[in-house]
């Protein structure tokens, strides 16, 4: 236990109070909370850190320890997510402390029992805070707890320091001190005050504001963006603009300094890029945070994929703790990057970690509006993405340097042009009954982009005329063997096409018999068996038994499901509605991309109920997996049959055999699953939501649907 030897203390006077251990009062949570130092209650993380750095004692350390003790009620030395959430609910002190930096804690109220009334948004934030601290572990010790909140304190202190500078600049523009300034006030201030000009538009020659048309337009555009249609800019408008939009220009303007991707031949839609296509694709890599020396595997992966890589070097790095306020630090170097863009004419600009600040600066000054890839969502990202480019942002839920809530990133990506923005996000799965996780979200050095050729595919996605999201979905086929792809193509991805194989009278599937045995020597049997036994080209994320033993496993029989009522009343209407929804989002429905073949396991009684139901088949709202904590609620399907068998999702029958369904699943536009998801999936383009969830956006092996009709049971496979 990290703090067992420390005496009990009070920060009210900055001194410890001696006592024998915790005493009886610690047993009562509310009494312990009342004893906590006034500094914890009345001062922010930033204020505590500032006092500590000024030599007034370990103020922040003492506050962190005090809050940790409140959460760790049993003195076990570590806390679970349940203990963490419970403490937030019981103690207003803990709630306000934990939620600093999320803008959710100013007015926390307690009911008559002393419990804190917190909304769902706040609890989602608490959940993500724990995941960020834990890095995928079930419990958090004090060192991880303290390290996380010290990072939050540093960010808050940096923002507080920046606000002081903002007030000085605002006062210089608001010369008559009436609390707001006009466009003329701003133009005059930037012309007469070099500090104001360099603060708002680094690199601008203040003396030429009224002489140079482009400079004047830039200043006017800046004012219009701050004022949002009003005649004047007040302090809160100015502060919001500076802190949250990071001096963002109006993206719709296109100054002559703007560079875009040159008009070389685009990657072929619907296919993986050839080596020739990649060799003609020049990538400008902004070196800080991404370089041959720092991350040689990433660089080698791009080079081996065939891209032309050009490095923009000699750019300074900076401390991650102040990353939100680096615009002024990177601004002097943006002209250098622009000159390299003009020189080499890249088709995509790639940045990682600290390099993200330079990429944001290029967007803000209009120096680059071509395809962009950002590894690690930089804290200086604006509240609105540029409108002219395809943008791919990659981020992991366990990033220990850049603390983002997933919902904030998802909302940010919706501000980009429709179907031109992709958030490649990796997150932790929910816990299994064993207490383990099936997948972990990336840390700051993203491990997942090195697997399954993901990094080159993200670059391809940014370049693809299909749009990055559609391209990534299409690229999932590269995670299947050629034999399986051939077999799936033979079966088809169309519900109507499947009926060509039906044996019921008139191929109607209405004669009362839902199962028809497929002859073992037929082409149909061979194709279904190929899909059943297929191994992916690269090792799967879930592997419990050897592939060799799986391939030798005998198949007893394959039965075709023919239920015309279910297909016509449920799956076809759903498919047609999905097609219309995608069309309204500007996406053409492609069955080979928006549908997939996958497996579903259950006991025999449940499978027969799915097969014989005259209308609905799969019913996610009443299925056994609707409360699954792994990837959210819904009906689960697996890419590989072996996963269903290894995971014991198809229990053995009395004769020792097992069975599972091969299904045609309508994925539509999927999102990464969320173990904390409650109810429906998030919005993609309002009013349209995502249609399904997956366990990985790079190489999904688990699919989750929530709607009746989203999956058609096609074959019942019985095996040893």
From TrEMBL:
Subcellular location per UniProt equals: Nucleus
Biased segments, Low complexity type? 253-274
Q: Where is this region: Disordered?
A: 1-42, 251-276
- Residues in coiled coil: none
One Pfam annotation reads PARP
Could you tell me which residue ranges the PARP catalytic domain spans?
496-720
Q: Which domain of life is it from?
A: Eukaryota
One GO BP annotation is: negative regulation of gene expression
Tell me which EC number(s) this protein carries.
Answer: 2.4.2.-
Residue stretches of biased makeup (Basic and acidic residues): 19-36
Show the GO MF annotations.
calcium ion binding; NAD+ poly-ADP-ribosyltransferase activity; transcription corepressor activity
Task: Identify the keywords attached in UniProt to this record, alphabetized.
Answer: Calcium, Glycosyltransferase, NAD, Nucleus, Transferase
Q: Which SUPFAM superfamilies match?
A: ADP-ribosylation, EF-hand
Alphabetized InterPro entries for the sequence: EF-hand-dom_pair (IPR011992), EF_Hand_1_Ca_BS (IPR018247), EF_hand_dom (IPR002048), Mono-ARTD/PARP (IPR052056), Poly(ADP-ribose)pol_cat_dom (IPR012317)
A GO CC term attached to the entry = nucleus
Domain EF-hand residues, every copy = 59-94
Q: Which PANTHER family match?
A: PARP/ZINC FINGER CCCH TYPE DOMAIN CONTAINING PROTEIN, POLY [ADP-RIBOSE] POLYMERASE
Protein name in the entry: Poly [ADP-ribose] polymerase
Natural source organism: Symbiodinium natans
Point out the gene that encodes the protein: PARP15
